[in-house]
Amino acid sequence: MKLVVVESPAKARSLSQYLGSSYKVVASYGHVRDLVSKPGAVDTEHDFLLTWNIIEKAERPLKEIESLVKSAEELILATDLDREGEAISWHLLQLLRERKAIRNGVGVSRISFNSITKQAVLEAMNSPREIDNGLVEAYLARLSLDHLVGFNLSPILWKKLPGCRSAGRVQSVALRLVTDRENEILSFKPEEYWSIEGEFGVKREKDSDATLKARLVAFKGDKLEKFSIRDEETAEKIKAALLVDQFSITSISKKQTKSRPSAPFTTSSLQQEVSRKLGFSPSRTMFLAQRLYEGVDIGGEAVGLITYMRTDSVNVSPEAIAACRGYIENVFGPKYVPKKAHLYKSKLKNAQEAHEAIRPTDISRTPESIRGFVDNDQFRLYRLIWQRMVSSQMEDALYDQVTVSILSHTEEAEFRSTGSTLVFDGFLRVYMVSVDDSSDKDGNEDMKIPAGICEGSLASPIFIGASQHFTQPLPRYSEASLIKNLEELGIGRPSTYAGILQILYDRNYVRSDQKRLIPEDKGKAVSIFLKHFFARYVDYGFTAGMEEQLDEVSSGRKEWKEVLRDFWTDFEKAVSSSKEVPIAEVIGYIEQEMLPHVSSQALVCEKCGAKMGLRMGKFGPFLACTGYPECSNAKPLQGARAGGGESEGASSGGVVGKDEEDGQEIALKVGPYGPYFEWKNSLKRVSIPRIFGGRPKDLSMAMWLKSLPVLIGKHSLTGDPMFLGIGRFGPYIKYSGSFFSVGARYEVTNISPEDAEEIIEAGKKKAEKKAKSNGSGGPEEGKLGEISYVKRPGKRGAAGAAASSASRSGKKRVRRNAIGSSN
């Protein structure tokens, strides 16, 4: 028997169907060990010696692998092809060798494949290799750096900024981007400018007269720039001069322009486009992509639908390009196939061009053909990936661009109108790229040019008007634009973007409002502290430089411990010096940056008239009277900012979208028990659980909460269904009449059937252990897994039995329900 080890059961099931009976495929359930979660796990005094521990959920699969490998003829490590996949294989091999589980003479090989299809897997089996030490060392260096930063910075934050939970090497830089953008918006001084537009009646050769809109581009020999007209008085003078003049069309120029299709998706561009088009968070996008990659049951066969989804490459294999071009010709016709295949090159300096872009494994497997085998979100994501790949090999879209110049008879004024007409749709037949909204729309959009007009004809002014404009600040980041900026700066890598955003939400450093990221006061305080005392380590250039060094480690050009030594020498000094900084000094820096944006009225105590100062508390910074203890007045910063500084919309009861099923508008509201979604017509309400913290409270969340309880899958041993729900005390798994609490380490929106089985098993063990500790005369064990359900003598059922342990200290008993509604 040959033993093949992969990360997930879904991937294991797919490979089992491709390989013969002489192979046994098992899953490690991801990483099997991690650095010990405490200071000193990276021992800086002993040349960065690392201390590992086995991840709890990996114990059972690890024992199974250890047992099977003892009788195996060969061990084949088939984890993913990126850095994390290489690290999982390395950890497994290290542990098995430490435990002397691998017999002498047993071969060990490493294989990797870009897609989980029979052809790709069999080709990989015929091309085994050794573990890539460069990738492993890059993983070790990255993990060590993150540990050193997190476990040295976070304790300082706890002391200096109560309520601020953590800082990280990359997350803190992402937070700085969000807070810096917010500061730019708050400090922005709008500039006034004016534009002059005209509407003209023009004669046509055959048809009736038409109207043409145009903008003034030159006046009295001067070309008009954006800020040429700065006030209303100037605009009105120009307008008055124009009203007494006559005009005619002096030139009509035509040219053809092309629009080229975008490259197939990388991890970053996929997360950005899905955020814009489908509204999924990056973590949700990656969860769905993982399912499509690992395989979907289609007609009794596990089929990997897309290639590997963690990549920064836009390359596509020649075979896939040929198949795509053939499909386009057969379905859309030869005119949609370019003479030469479109080849794309990444703009990123450190892109791993050896990988492929994200694409369908089989282009002939259309979205409609797989619709009945996947859920709606998986279908929508696959359709987007399929459309992007097909469009990337289609002909350019062609436009006829027409520019009309209208000159006054005195030749003092020139108006211009430009319009584009689509003459060949090309790739637009399949796909149109989305973009973030522009922050400063000043009227430069295309204008409709009527057909049949000719040079020399009169243009009679119907209306000439002056429009006032003000410059706008750059918009707040969306998830998509933040990921784009991180990528452009060279900060983070494909596998990290979703995690970075999730941490910012979970720490309540950032919240999402109408798909825009707004830094919380707590997040601002952290960012200010780090900019003043760890400026180098939240510098964009420095962080990007660290990423480049890690890439050099992965390619073998640099030794990983050398990178750690260079980093630790200066970082240790910064940590030591910051420990001596008085809290008053820290508060002073935060006041300097935050209080200028607070209204002067809010800075005066309404009770005693004294000055209000900034203080730090469990929930972040707040305003407190400096006359304390005589006056104990305090109030939050939120709402105290000059000019508001807060966005309107969903947070104040705005509509987040329409129900995909019945078209009802869904509003986000806040009641006495917290935020909730309300369906306007039916007045259906769904509470938003506390576990979601600062995550985007958007349409995607509303629809997910509405779907609860949702079927996760069937138990692999019993075949009984497993449901996910959320009750008064958090998320739970319902299985076979029992309920099992979902621990904090699980991402509740991304729980897989394997996770559910693991939660059930852990709950049963905990219940058994509790029953044994109670003894035969103790409480009777109930069927609620980790949720407190034990029947105590003299109590009425589960609700009374699950009274709070606080009662033993004389505190009032708290009644707990075993099951709560999803509301």
What does this protein look like?
- The record marks 31, 142, 146, 158, 310, 507 as: Interaction with DNA.
- The protein is of the alpha+beta class and 823 residues long.
- It folds into six domains: 2-131, Rossmann fold; 141-187 and 476-636, Orthogonal Bundle (Topoisomerase I, domain 2); 192-260 and 397-470, Distorted Sandwich (Topoisomerase I, domain 3), CATH 2.70.20.10; 280-392, Topoisomerase I, domain 4 (Orthogonal Bundle), CATH 1.10.290; 650-706; 713-809, no CATH class.
- 33% of the residues lie in helices and 22% in strands.
- A six-stranded antiparallel beta barrel has the order 9-10-16-15-12-17. A four-stranded parallel beta sheet has the order 2-1-7-8, sandwiched between helices.
- Helix 8 runs antiparallel to helix 12.
